């Protein structure tokens, strides 16, 4: 939720939703408490980033006689372009020939529209890089069909580039993921 690469939690109980962030040292800090008038819920979704400010948003559907959608967005306004990978984040194992999702969070200044390029390195964080997809809409998600002939690796990295108004920003997975043969 806060983009610091430590796993965060969304906890929801009757009448409230808490956003709890890991501090990286084994502890937890409450980042936000949202009061919700609904007593019970039937669906909760966190992310993607609907307003492209670089932070995930929360949607809740209340259960009962009438389903009611509540949408809670992180309200900061970005001043500069940025992008960071969400999935993969490192440590995963993917099978060549399978279909996975690449997800990202991006911050795009108001009034601009970004296009995204996704690249893959199978031999480490320094590349070389192979373009997997280019000029994608900045939707926060891409369905990746891992080519069946992708070489096995335990040192896979992904790099994402966003371009808007002739400005670019890049983000890259920090730790490696693996691709194995079927």
Description:
The protein has 182 residues and is mainly β. The chain has two domains: 65 residues, no CATH class; 99 residues, Immunoglobulin-like. The protein is built from no helices and 15 strands. The strands form four sheets. Strands 8, 10, 11, 13, 14 and 15 form a six-stranded mixed β-sheet that branches. The radius of gyration is 18 Å and the shape is globular. 19% of the residues are buried.
Give the second-level CATH assignment, the architecture of the largest domain: Sandwich
Share of residues in strands: over 45%
- At CATH level 3, the topology of the largest domain is Immunoglobulin-like
Instruction: Please tell me the total number of domains.
Output: 2
The count of strands amounts to 15
> Number of helical runs?
0
Uncertain parts: none
Please tell me what the overall shape is: globular
Structural class label: mainly beta
Kindly, what is the distance between the CA atoms of the first and last residues, rounded to a whole number of angstroms? 34 Å
Please tell me the overall pLDDT.
86
Classify the helix fraction into a percent range. Answer: under 10%
In brief:
The chain contains no helices and 15 strands. By secondary structure, it is mostly beta strands. The mean pLDDT is 86.
What features would you highlight for this structure?
Immunoglobulin-like, mainly beta, 0% helix, three-stranded antiparallel beta sheet, single chain, 182 residues, 2 domains
